[in-house]
Amino acid sequence: MTQSVKRHSETVMVPFPSDAIVPARDLGKRPVLEARHLGIQFGGLKAVDDFNLTVGPTEIAGLIGPNGAGKTTVFNLLTKVYEPTQGTVLLDGHDTKGLDVTHTARLGVARTFQNIRLFDKMTVEENVRIGLHNKIQYGMVSGILRLPGYWKKERQQHERAMELLRIFNMQDQADAVSGSLPYGAQRRLEILRALATEPKLLLLDEPAAGMNPHETEELMDTIIRIRDQFQIAIMLIEHDMRLVMGICEGICVLNFGQIIAKGTAEEIQNNPVVVEAYLGKQKGAGE
Predict the structure, then answer these.
(1) Residue 127 lies in domain
(2) Tens digit of pLDDT for each residue in 216-236?
(3) Which pLDDT value is given to residue 131?
(4) Which of 40, 93, 205, 268 matches a 20 to 30 Å C-alpha distance to 177?
(5) DSSP collapsed to 3 states, the chain
C-alpha cells in the first residue's frame, strides 16, 4: 500500500453535532451532506429506515454492508432517483425536498453506477465533454453560425476534458471509442465524466468492481488525489474491504436498510455487530 494511502487512513475523526463524526480538518465547516431520519418504503417493505449520516466537505466516506443491505437505494435517495417517504436530505445546506435528479445535480452531487453507463459509441473525450455541458455554454445563434464565441468554447471544452483525462493518464485514449476500452478503463472514464460536472459530493457505486489488484491500488491513490486536488467530498459503496479500510475516513455500515455501526476503519473492523452481519453469528466454544 502506498504511503499516501496509509497517511489518509489515519485521519483523526472528531465529534460533530447530531451524533456524527467528521475529519478534524472539516470541523467548523458546513457539511456537504446531512441525511436526517431518511427512509423509503416500497409497499409494506422498508428498504431504508431512519438513515442518519453527516459527511464533511473534504471527507472520503464509505457505505458498506452485505448484499441487499440497501446501499444503492441510499444513493438513489441522495440523488433523488427516489423521493424519500420520510426524512430530509441536505446538500451543502440546501434541502432537496421536491427536487428532481437534474436540480439535485446542480446543487453539486454527481455519481457513478454499479453497471457502467457510458455512451459506448462515442469517444472517450466526448463522454467527458458530456459532463461539461452545463459548465461551458454558448448561445444558439453562435452554435448554428459557428461564430468565434462557439469555437472559443469548443476549445475550452477540449482543454478541460484533456485536463481531466490526465488524472487517470487516459489522454492518449481521447479519440478511442469508449465501448472498446477494457472494463477497468471504462470504470475510470465514468468517474471522470462525473467529475466533469464539478461536484461538491462525488458518489461512487462500487468503483473497484472488475478491477485487478494493481488497478485497485491505483484507484485508491487516485481517489485521494481527486479529493485533495478538487477539495470535494467522496462517498463510496464498495465490497473491496482493503480499499474501504485503506482510504475511507468515516464508515457507515448498513444491514437490512438500517445503520448498525458508524466509525473509523479501526472501529468498524473491531465491531462485533459488523462482524456478525458479514460473517453470521459465531458459535461459542461450548455450543
Answers:
(1) 119-196
(2) 999 999 999 999 999 999 999
(3) 86
(4) 205
(5) CCHHHHHHHCCCEEEECCCEEEEHHHCCCCCCEEEEEEEEEECCEEEEEEEEEEECCCCEEEEECCCCCCHHHHHHHHCCCCCCCEEEEEECCEECCCCCHHHHHHCCEEECCCCCCCCCCCEHHHHHHHHCCCCCCCCHHHHHHCCHHHHHHHHHHHHHHHHHHHHHCCHHHCCCEHHHCCHHHHHHHHHHHHHCCCCCEEEEECCCCCCCHHHHHHHHHHHHHHHHHHCCEEEEECCCHHHHHHHCCEEEEEECCEEEEEECHHHHHCCHHHHHHHHCCCCCCCC
